[in-house]
């Protein structure tokens, strides 16, 4: 029986041949040892890659299947097994293995490459029946301002001759511990090689330890069509967003959205998007608005270990439907910039900044001026992939809202840790 040193030398020789693109030589070398080495995941992986590149697809599948049986977390082996199934003409099996590989610990550019291959498979051989994915989250947070309220205890109202008014304690900044939960599902089914029916539903709930009147539930539902042609995709969808605060329905928004996206290269992506919605506030018809948002975005992956950066810019208009209350409508513009950097296996750090300015219509009641707001939102944190379907996210967020109307001037800090489980 060969010694351990000889066995390692065999694998080293096979790797060297593969690096020289001598797949046939590597396969011939490893195939002779298969009867005594089968079951060794390192050996089977190299044998599978060499067999596949040398054109022995069935042998490659057998070898790579042995790897994922003993090492189900091996994303590289799953990616190669997906490639082998694709070469064998089994699109469904290839799609399944590639999706599992994409959910594991891979460099960003490898994950993006796998997504593109899956997209091509979906165009050539759409999956039979509906496909779905989902997630569940649970987390805990400290929120320094759960009601996004001013810290001012008193302020002057010009309409009443500058008389000082006291704000009640419940209308001032309040802090609390928060239990945050969320869940969602995405589904799609192919109508043709290039058209898909898509849908999504998400539910998010925040439960405060003390300030129960700020407990909130948010439900988002989307249904639409996606068209894919080469590296470009287009989506048009109907949307419903409903929010409950303090156990009562607060706002409902119904509308439509559209997006065009193009993958210009392996690491560069751009998009253009639009959204229109009709917002209705329960019991406060004077606040009802029609909202239109237009924007564009871009993302870029810099090299194998470089950062992923992204950004978007947009303009927004909310038109008050009640002509007697123009101050509830506004025009605004915003900018969002962010970056992610992989620190090590399964650990990613991220940071994001968003800025928005708003100019409201009409005159703010009691203050004899048109409201102007500027808001900065900052976020930073770490995302740790414990295993392919589990992540732990720790983050800090800071919001600074500056307004010429003291009631809307506030700051807020949130520190949160979340466990995320994905399903597919």
Automatic annotation (TrEMBL):
Residues 132-423 form the Surface lipoprotein assembly modifier C-terminal domain. SUPFAM superfamilies: Porins, TPR-like. Gene3D superfamilies: Tetratricopeptide repeat domain (1.25.40.10). InterPro entries: Slam_C (IPR007655), TPR-like_helical_dom_sf (IPR011990). It holds the Pfam family SlipAM. This is Surface lipoprotein assembly modifier C-terminal domain-containing protein. The lineage of its organism: Bacteria, Pseudomonadati, Pseudomonadota, Betaproteobacteria, Burkholderiales.
